[in-house]
Design a protein that fits this description.
The chain is of the alpha+beta class. Strands 2-1-6-5-4-3 form a 6-stranded mixed beta sheet, with helices on one face. β5 and β6 form a beta hairpin. The longest helix has 11 residues. The chain is globular, with a radius of gyration of 13 Å.
């Protein structure tokens, strides 16, 4: 799933990138810009922060640890780096995934 997100991001496709998130008002996303509640609010924040492929740059993930929490939940800790023409962004993330309707999706994201 994270590989598909990375590919979508690097193709400038935020809508496809968001397929890895739970399409629910209960999705929680926390970043230095604040807390977003719900899938649509998270998508809107991504579109505002990354309005075009130049702003999006190239995303790379490094998975540090995967921890099962239950039979249907697991936690992923990792690093990300977004490389753009003039600068880069990097930090850490914690994702909680849940299997919903046979698909693993992020239900919680804390990115710093």
């Amino acid at each position: 799933m994270l590989e598909a997100e990375q590919i979508a991001w690097n193709n400038g496709d935020i809508d496809a990138f968001m397929e890895g998130y739970w399409k629910s008002d209960s999705l929680q996303f926390m970043s230095p810009r604040g807390v977003n509640h719900g899938w649509q609010e998270t998508l809107d924040a991504y579109r505002k922060g990354y309005p075009d492929i130049k702003a999006m740059g190239s995303l790379h993930y490094e998975i540090m640890k995967v921890t099962p929490l239950s039979g249907e939940h697991f936690l992923v800790m990792g690093k990300y780096k977004v490389t753009r023409n003039t600068d880069f962004l990097e930090g850490y993330f914690t994702l909680i995934f849940k299997e919903i309707d046979g698909k693993w999706v992020a239900i919680y994201d804390h990115t710093s």
